[in-house]
Amino acid sequence: MTRLILASGSEIRQQILRNAGIGFDVQMSGVDEDAIKQKWSGGDPADLALQLAEAKAGAVSKGNEGLILAADQILSLEGRLYDKAKSTDEARDRLLMLRGKPHTLHSGLVAVRNGQTIWRHKQDSHLSVREFTDSFLDQYLTSAGDELTKSVGAYAYEGFGAQLFEHVDGDYYAILGLPLLPVLSLLRDEGVIPV
DSSP letters of 29-41? Predict the structure, then answer.
């Protein structure tokens, strides 16, 4: 079997793979994501997510054999792009900005083998946040804790964060940051898991 390396420190991405019975190693890329974002000239936000994922996978592939998988996610709201919140206060502001509005999560995944990109996948998920009350928000912020700074939307959709939404059009795993079915197909094709 081919060795899989996940070029991501995301706990939820790791959990998705573990729950699907996938064996893998984790290696952080050390890529300066902010530098890539600053050079981005605009266009489809999913292409930026792909560019970030490709940079991470490429960095990890140096000196590593096997299949390197990297992913990234960008949130767009009313024409602006957002990263993960850096603090609880920023997460609160983000959720207030999202309240009562639709937004899009743009996922980009890239696989690299022997320094060559062999697979790219992008997928959009459309989410509508409900008009939650300030008291609900306070309760959510207290409950979510560290989860607030682990996703671009400052929500943990796999848990209590699901209560933030009134409508979702997208794959559950893509919303969490790792569209599982396309990844499983890739892993079968590349000899990481049995056909």
Answer: ----HHHHHHH--
